[in-house]
Amino acid sequence: MIDARIKKHAELLVKYSIEARQGETVVVSGTSAAEPLFVHLYEAILKAGAYPLLRMAPESTSRIYFTAGQKHHYVSLPGYQLALARSVDKYISIHSSVDTRGLSGVAPWKQAAAVKAVSPVNEIMRRKAGVITLFPTIGYARDASMTLEDFQDYVYRAMFLDEEDPVACWKRLRKAQEKLISKLKGAEKIRIVGKGTDLSLSVKGRHFVNSDGKRNMPSGEIYAAPVEGSVEGVITFDYPVCTAGREIDGVRLVFRKGRAVEATATKNEAYLKAMLDMDKGARVPGELGIGTNPRINRFIKQILYDEKIGGTIHLALGRSILESKGKNKSAIHWDMIKDLRRGGAIYVDGRPFQVEGRFVV
């Protein structure tokens, strides 16, 4: 049976998230597991008058890249990748892994080198209109300890695809987030407290961005770039960082003068340190985000969703997001989540802004 929500998903991405226009070239990338979404995206992009460029690859090629590749494959890029990035107008990136542990045995240096090598392409693409989304697979469902059917329901509800008019829902969420941002206008110091956590940072002169489904689908967060050099204190994260086939759990960071001077983990600590030593900006926070999506309420090991959990904050080490006007540069952008729903709080210039996951403004 064809799931009608897949077509609604495609139309939401094309019409709302990237607003595809006649004559534009839209590149769509993901694994072959997302073929049903690729097909509907192809149709929706054509109906918008744009040119679809599909880059759908078997997931196994990622593992082959790291096992059969030679050193130059990880440290340099062929010219066509930069040329392609420059030539397209917009993009849709689909997370669609079936074997989420497929890269767990890859040497960390190879992954770090590959991330660094592709950063010039990523830098070009970040300046274009585009969206990251997720196609529900059995691999993601297993990670979330859910059946595929339950996981599909969770994924599509988070995008309001069970509603008659998803766009209207996203506009309402945008308005609610705008009210929160208005309360943060002119803020200088933010303090986050919770279990194993007492962290302070400055947002003086920075503004919070309203993330409303244009760059991420789903979304539901507001975020800003901390002033470089201002982060002080300690933070212990409640959920593992899930990336590149690994889970880095029990992460604890100590900051002095804006840098993580201590970084420990109860699981995969060596990998954590390898990534944070990748470049000068990797130990510097590039983002503070506050989750607001009312339909995302549990950890599923997918950062696209988990960082939007209402009642959580996330601190991203590495690159500042372009829209935030932050200045930190790095090949990585690693979001780490702190759950404030049980005993945590956010203070803005000494006044409570959120207590135990509930906004008090």
Question: What characteristics describe this protein?
Answer:
eight-stranded antiparallel beta sheet, 361 residues, five-stranded parallel beta sheet
Termini separation comes to: 46 Å
Uncertain segments of ≥5 residues (pLDDT<50)? none
Shape: globular
Mean pLDDT: 94
Percentage of residues in helical conformation: 25-40%
How many separate helices?
11
Biggest sheet: strands, sense, closure? 8 strands, antiparallel
State which percent range the strand residues make up: 25-35%
Report on the architecture of this protein.
It contains eleven helices and 20 strands. The chain has helices spanning 4-17, 35-47, 60-68, 71-75, 79-87, 108-126, 138-143, 148-158, 166-184, 269-276, 303-306; strands at 25-31, 51-57, 90-95, 129-134, 189-194, 197-202, 209-211, 216-217, 221-224, 232-236, 241-243, 246-248, 252-256, 259-264, 285-291, 312-318, 333-339, 345-348, 351-355, 358-359. The strands form four sheets. It has an eight-stranded antiparallel β-sheet with strand order 14-13-10-6-5-18-19-20. Strand 18 and strand 19 form a beta hairpin. The longest helix has 19 residues, at 108-126. The protein is globular, with a radius of gyration of 20 Å. The protein starts with a helix and ends with a strand. The mean pLDDT is 94.
